[in-house]
Design a protein that fits this description.
Blueprint (H helix, E strand, L loop, with lengths): L1 H11 L12 E6 L4 E5 L12 H12 L5 E7 L10 H10 L5 E5 L5 E5 H4 L10
Parallel strand pairs: 3-4
Antiparallel strand pairs: 1-2, 1-3, 4-5
The chain binds zinc ion.
Zinc ion binds next to helix 3.
Length: 129
């Protein structure tokens, strides 16, 4: 997991957050062991910004189309644990499943682990079974 933390720290340093000063870095590992990362990207037109998870997923899909998520590492700031927003939980569900591990970490090095199924039970699915 320390490799993912390092990647998330490096990504977080690249966040573009001049409006909120809220820097987020995310690292993801695919089922076949590839790692990617991303940071949040704000915009002067606030709704046009996007989350770190979105950046990381785009990097993954562009480099390795069809890859599936094994683990996600979310590094926020503050003393609590930053969990993915609702929209990103659905984005992660597009490339993961209920067992995908989502580790939420703070700058002090504390981590709290969830499964994607815990964070987004009953995810939207075009073909529900
Ligand atoms: Zn989000």
């Amino acid at each position: 997991m320390s490799d993912l933390r390092t990647l998330a720290e490096q990504a977080r340093a690249c966040a573009h957050a001049p409006y909120s000063q809220f820097h987020v870095g995310v690292a993801i590992e695919t089922l076949d062991g590839q790692c990617f990362s991303g940071a949040n990207m704000e915009n002067a037109s606030y709704p046009e910004g996007w989350c770190a998870e979105t950046s990381a997923l785009a990097h993954m899909q562009m480099a390795s189309p069809g890859a599936r998520l094994a683990r996600v590492y979310v590094l926020g700031q503050g003393e609590g644990f930053l969990t993915p927003c609702g929209g990103c939980r659905q984005r992660l569900a597009e490339f993961g499943d209920a067992d995908t591990q989502v580790v939420c970490a703070n700058l002090a090095g504390q981590e709290k682990s969830f499964t994607l199924g815990q964070l987004l039970p009953a995810a939207f699915d075009l073909d529900p079974t």
